[in-house]
Amino acid sequence: MDITWTDFHLDENIFYFHNADLKSLTFVLDSDTKDNFYLNLLTKSLANVLDAPNDHSMVLAVPGKTNYFHPKIPAFDVKYIDNCIKINDFPDPTKYLIKNTSTANYTKDQIFDCWLHQNQSWSDLVSVSENQKNSGEDSDDIFSINLHLATTSLSGSSLKNTRIPYSHKEDVSIVKYIIKNKYAFNVNVVSMWQRMEHDNVCKYRSWQSMKQRYLKHIKNDLNSKKHSFPFLTPKKLQILQQGLRYGKKKNIDREAIKLRCNKTRNFYGSTTDSSS
């Protein structure tokens, strides 16, 4: 295998392969370099490397040079690892999928839910058509977690500047917290989100990230006819929806007041100029 990073040093290029729950991500290497470059890289990056695929593993191979095939577990271009480290993030894995290694097609969210969040297994996933797969992806799924990898050892405070997609479990935690504490009408109040961060509602998520997640993504889910929060009673759902409308109305009122103030200021300014 040709390695494009001739000046790559493991000690200088560390990207920890774990999820928001600090669970190590799992890989299977269908092929590697003679000096086991990717095995050493993944091991140093706190990943688990297995000999055979399991329910949450990502199989890595070289396109055109692999005989790997599995009906439910596809293989991905090994360059996915390179790009994770290059951009310090998890790019869309569907762009690295080696199509002839499996009959199944999965969306980005399905792959992340299985491999990254480990909420589902490969056997749980239902393959989708190519058209559905390419129908568009929600860019709001990815937010900064403000992770800081200060040392080569992993600790709670070492997680900064790694972008990991939100899981449904985290969305549920945010909604349940708002309901439990009766904060439905405070979703535009900064102190509420800061308290949520202090209470560790979503580990390693900043209050800004959780606020943005709720107001840009969860809001649309709550207002849809088929929301993904079955634990909500009709009354609680109505309260959350009213809180979102109330916050929007407050923003509109605030803008209206600002506009009136500007008009008044401009009027008096022009009067003063003409009188002088």
From TrEMBL:
UniProt record, GO biological process: protection from non-homologous end joining at telomere; regulation of DNA-templated transcription; telomere maintenance via telomere lengthening
Task: List localization entries.
Answer: Nucleus; Chromosome, Telomere
- Lineage top rank: taxon: Eukaryota
Name recorded for this polypeptide: Telomeric repeat-binding factor 2-interacting protein 1
Name where it mostly resides. Answer: nucleus
Q: How does it assemble?
A: Homodimer.
The GO terms describing molecular function are: telomeric DNA binding
Q: Any idea which UniProt keywords this protein has?
A: Activator, Chromosome, Nucleus, Telomere, Transcription, Transcription regulation
Per the UniProt record, the source organism is Melanaphis sacchari
Pfam annotation, one family: Myb_Rap1
The record's section on InterPro entries has: Homeodomain-like_sf, TE2IP/Rap1, TERF2IP_Myb
Q: Which gene encodes it?
A: terf2ip
Q: Which GO terms describe its cellular component?
A: shelterin complex
Any idea what job this protein has?
A: Acts both as a regulator of telomere function and as a transcription regulator. Involved in the regulation of telomere length and protection as a component of the shelterin complex (telosome). Does not bind DNA directly: recruited to telomeric double-stranded 5'-TTAGGG-3' repeats via its interaction with terf2. Independently of its function in telomeres, also acts as a transcription regulator: recruited to extratelomeric 5'-TTAGGG-3' sites via its association with terf2 or other factors, and regulates gene expression.
Q: Which residues are listed as membrane-spanning?
A: none
Recorded family membership = Belongs to the RAP1 family.
Give start and end of each TERF2-interacting telomeric protein 1 Myb domain: 166-221
